[in-house]
Amino acid sequence: MLGFFFPRLVIVLLYFFTGWFRAAFDGFILPLLGFIFLPLTTLWYGISETYFESVQTVGLIIAVLLDLGIVGSKMRK
């Protein structure tokens, strides 16, 4: 639940104190870009690669939509 509200904080904690992102990503550039632009998507990708050993497509699509603000945003007049 903490990852939904503070995804960047959770990414930093997981990166430095666990091996999740080192196992999911081969380098440093993609996690850094994900941290900046798509934090929920990066967090979901790291979690799904660690727990499920494959990317869960539905969860990944939902995370991208949340990151882009398409889901959960109110339309302004």
TrEMBL record:
Domain of life: Bacteria
Keywords, sorted A to Z: Membrane, Transmembrane, Transmembrane helix
Residue ranges crossing the lipid bilayer per the database entry: 6-21, 28-48, 54-72
Protein name per its UniProtKB record: Uncharacterized protein
